Structures are given as structure tokens and as C-alpha cells.
Amino acid sequence: MDRTRLDDRDIAILATLSREGRIAKTELAARVNLSPTPCWERMKRLEKAGLIRGYRAEIDLEALGPHVQVFVTVELESHKAESFQLFERTVGRMDAVTGCWAIGGGYDYLMQMVTTDVATFQELMDGLLESRAGVRRYYSYIVTKPIKADPPAMGLLRGD
Length: 160
Known about the structure:
With about 160 residues, the protein is α+β, with helices and mostly antiparallel strands. Helices cover about 40% and strands about 20% of the residues. The protein has helices at about 10-20, 25-30, 35-50, 60-65, 80-90, 120-130, 155-160; strands spanning about 70-75, 95-100, 110-115, 135-140. It has a four-stranded antiparallel sheet. The model has no long low-confidence stretch (mean pLDDT about 90). It comes from Donghicola eburneus.
């Protein structure tokens, strides 16, 4: 879908769904000032266009039990295409990695990991270092307190 073809109601649908994925279709329609059928049709069009990739629940990890969330910057030994591909395939198979981004600047990747404790995190990182994934060095940052984790404001992405 061409970005310019999104109107204010499409943006309102995306914004509402990014905050409340389980909202009832009739409630969503009311919030974006549409009747249910046109709202549903717009949702289906947005899904088909790939703008809505899925619906998820936000889980309270504290309620599940002890855990540690860690952000990790990673620098690879080699900057050949196959080195990046190998690292990305390796990380893609690690369940503890909940997010991984290729980044510009001094490091090659930023990873987000969730494990039961720091010892488990360190075991995973030791395994990653011992693997042939090509990690030269990494720096870890343990989350001590979550402050904010909201979806992006849709208007900001359009330049509003």
C-alpha cells in the first residue's frame, strides 16, 4: 500500500490497534467514527497491505515470575555479508532474544533479551561467543526499571 493513500481514519485505526489489539470491532468503529462494516473493510485492507502484521497481548513479566531483561550491543569480528547473515540466523534461533536490530554507529546490532536471571543470560552469551556467530565483543545493559514502552505515535510517522 502506498503510504500516501492512508487517510486520517486509517491512521486512527492503526493507532488504536497498536495500543489495544483486542478492542471489539464495534468499539474500534465507534472510536474512529465509522460504522462497523467500513471499519472492518479498512482493517482487512490494512492487514492485506502488510501494515498490520499481527495482534499480541502485552504480558506482565513481573506477574509471571523472576526475570531479567537485558539490552546488548554487539560488534562482529568481520563485516562481510556472510558474517552478518550467520549472526542473524544464529540469533533468530535463540528464544531468549526478543528483539534484535542492525544499527549504525559503533556497534553492529542491538539485542533485547529476557531470561530468568543474570546467570542464565551469561550462559547464553557465553554460548553465543563460543559459537561460530562471529561476535567480537558485546556490552550488556540490565534493565533495572521499565519507564516507558509504548507503540510509536502514528501521526509522528506521517510527519503530522
